[in-house]
Design goal:
This protein is of the alpha/beta class. It has two domains: 212 residues, Rossmann fold, CATH 3.40.50.1100; 94 residues, Rossmann fold. 47% of the residues lie in helices and 15% in strands. The strands form two sheets. A six-stranded mixed β-sheet has the order 1-2-10-7-8-9, with helices on both faces. It has a four-stranded parallel β-sheet with strand order 5-4-3-6, with helices on both faces.
Amino acid sequence: MLEPTLKDIYEARSRISGAVRRTPLEKCLWLSEQTGHDVYLKLECWQRTRSFKLRGAFNAVASLSDSERRRGLVTASAGNHGQAVALAARETGARATIFVPTNGSITKKARIRAFGAELNEEHATYDDAAVAAVAYANDTGATYVHAFSDPAVVAGQATVGVEILEDLPSVRSIIVPVGGGGLIAGIGTVAKSASSSITVVGVQSTQTRAMYDAFEAGHVMPTDIGPTLADGLAGCVDEPSYRRAVSVVDRMLLVDEDAIPAAIRSLYHFDGVIAEGAAAVTAAAIMTGAVRVEGPTVLVVSGGNIDAALFGNILASG
């Protein structure tokens, strides 16, 4: 598979059926009232691994040959993709080794271990962990499952877009958190195939701006990642992922880090939704006026894996 087509996406949907939940699309009353338009939440935080990442990882792992799985699987992850590969490995009888940053989420690392994968947390940043994971694959012959650039992963993530369009055919805008870009590329492919008038907007934080900087520059460029609540967005972007995203995304924008806790609190208080920082940036974009809502709009709430102590502190601080 070179670039995922609609055929690939619908085959992915069939392949992951039964392993992945169809997540709800629920109207967000407070944001609908604030904007004067219907706003909906696509609750991928209620996925089996509490993140959309299971869709792409399971499709990629299920697409491998038996010999590729027997060699073992390896990946680098800020946490959610690692959980997804760990669960997919367990359910297909493969071994998995997950490289994560040393200071990564305690909750995400614990869940990776719970799914039976071996965890390597010796490297300070996601980028360092990714380099080490590739080296491990080269040294051991393990099969590398890329977090966002593998076309099979993108095809799996795109099934989020299929469900949105089935549940809300009148959607005019889809607002998506962006890390490496696999999710928004997949959703954008589905949305633009349905109607070129559907606006696809990507959101990063000021401390996790690799894709935003690539859009601004017109090419991938080195970007420093700072301390962030949106750890799921704190990674690099490669050229294939950038090219996929730029072809289907209308706009990339940034929200300030200090807008993320307020969005986490509001999603919990008004909707009972536990969203991690990376998932809350979409709500923050509307709350701060970074994006203007002009018709039925869907916010992808991409994950809910937030450390309990951090979540409690965010709620208490409000």
